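Lab notes, practical 5.
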Amino acid sequence: MLCAAAAQARISVLDHVDVTHAEGYSTVRLYMNVPMQVKRFAPERSGDFIRIFVEPVATLGAEADVLFGDETIQWSADEEVPLTEISYESSGFATAIVNLQFEEEVEFEIPPSPDLRQIAITVRHKGAAVPDVREPVMRGGEAGAAARTFSYAINLASSMQPFTAAELPELDILQVYRVYTTEFQKDGKPWSRLRLGFFSSKEEAEQVLQQIGPYFPGAWLTRVSPEEREESAATAMDGSTARVSARRAEPAPPPEPSPAARVGGRVTASELEKMGEVMAEAERLMTDKDYDGAIRLYTKVLDYPENASSRDALEYLGLARERKGQLAQAKAAYDSYLERYPEGEGADRVKQRLAGLVTATKAPKGKLQAAKGRETTGAEWDVFGGFSQFYRRDENTSQLNEDEKLTTVTQSSLSSDLDITGRLKTGDYELRTRFAGGYLYDFLNSGEDSETTVSSLYFDATNRNNRLAMRLGRQSRSTGGVLGRFDGLLLDVPLTRKLSMAATTGFPVDSSRDGFDSSQYFYGVNFELEDFLEGWDASAFYIEQKADTILDRRAVGGELRYFDVNRSFFTLVDYDIFYQIVNTAQLLGNWTTASKTTFNIVLDYRNSPILTTSNALQGALNPNDNITPLTTIEEMLVFFTQDELFQFAQDRTATARLGTLGVSRPITEKLQVSGDVTLSKLSDTVSSGGVAVVPGTDNEFYYNLQLIGSNLLKEGDVTIIGLRFIDATTSDTTSLSLNTRYPVTRDFRVNPRFRVDFRKNDDNTEQFIYRPSARLTYSIKRRFRLEGELGGEWSDREIVAGSSKSKSWFVNLGYRADF
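Output from the prediction step:
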């Protein structure tokens, strides 16, 4: 599976997390250094623990094996967002999960993201409504019918008197959809509304509205809440015998201008007067936080030729969409405003709002994003993060013969990790500094093999008004041709509203265990074009890297991205113009149907590892003794020419091909099913310079099927049952896994897991492997918790002469403290 010929440890998957607050809700934004395709998540709408199943897209400097492992970002919980931790875990292909841990149950939404390097989670404040950022699922018709999304309804009429079925007109269309009533207060008096629903798109609803217009002249289109959809079954009407009386014609909105009334491209005086009423009503709806209604009215005003209300209507249309959480549409409205009205007080306001949107919605690009906490006019300083310590012990026992066993302690260590972020907001500037690293003490060798790690250590500054940004220090990046983690500088400079340039330079860092090393350095430039067509973004880069005294890499390439709420597309190309070879070519597609069935495809061709001259170091030995390793390019140049090194680098580089097709679908609100099929192949390397061939693989097939349940036994539980079959080069493996999480109490949670593998090897041996484990978490007060995990592995391999048995176990105990 796209495994590098030599181990790489160049990139952190998680970059940072930020929280922004709005009226009634907050948005948690997780920024990542590699693209992540969100395949599904559980539970569906509420819980204190969210599992987001993702497929990390191996990019430059991030081979698939580098994306395995665990990472954690700790967060300081508050009353509005009781988030304590975000973690990433992956034990192998198709097993990547992003977990969000909250102190208490929250209601949330996870809308599709136009940026694969960002996941946004909208969290509802207690007792408040949250914007409907995802199309909810509603069951209709007979039991077992397929799920369909509904979000629109038509308000047929309103009255102070209750409606009855006898008043409905004899229309076939009323038999196709549900006719129901709702209640509301107007001027302190109870009113009834007669509505028709539900429609999966605005276009479908508008078509029906045209059909029934002659019978309901005051009808209008509206979006409805999940609660209204659920309650509509109790107030649904059956039958039809007569029309609704004229006295019940809809009086709710004021008369709306009709584009058909235009005269010679001008707006008449009567229309201007009506538009004044519409603008006043829209302002009232904004005050009442009825953003759907306000958006509808502002859009109607903008259907007319330029007039005195157009400027305000366009500005407030953007504001209404921003407050509703429709950030992409808000950005489009603000962009349109600045194109039409580039000067004036309103333009200044819109520029500030647009700058805030760009900062809040785009991927990191080395920028400081919108941070946790409310906006203030003065300076605001905040420090947050966490500290953890864990003791880990691993022990393995092998059966040498019938009477003899060998027990070995393979690990006994104490890891201490700190993740701390300081952030200052003042005026137009946001400043941030972050450290993430730790120290591992090895008890086995009296501390001799202890090591210090630094994953991130940087200073970040952003001017939100003009969108200038910089980041200096140890950081990770997988765009613009950068190969992951590096020590260096990133500058982001806007050229126009849609075009920006990022310049970067620094020294590659192979591992977080490494210190500063200047033997390799790079410099490059990346141009980013946003929304050049509706939904489309693109980027192009040039980068050059040196290793000691010779060229390591010189490449060009870029990304092309498309996004709408149902479809997304991502492609990346990296071409080395020195070696004249494609380093990476990748395509990722995602499509979600109206029934919430999601299809995804990944096609990937790449060099493994990414071709650089430094690849020549793999397996290189001093030719005088064939024992001493050569560890630098300068050492190799003592024995070989530059041209020989260039050839050795190509010989040590394999090519990897991968294709995945997957599908996932909700069965009920509590159950989801997903499956995927993957084909991969890794080529052999070439023998040269005293280094032997590294064999590749045949075509290997991976088949995965998962059933995910949430809230099955108790609110907050999650259960994952997985079945997997691998047809690999040297063995066939069938795996059955169970991963559950159960909240015993609010403070105590258990996570038992079990996996059994049956492996049939090509040497005619068979092997069963059992892997049970359990993780326990107990929270003490608000920001301190104890964690423990115990697990093991038992293997019984049948061979010709008998059997070979082994067993191992591990324990991991510690605590986490947030601040």
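Observations recorded by the TA: The mean pLDDT is 80. The chain has ten helices and 36 strands.
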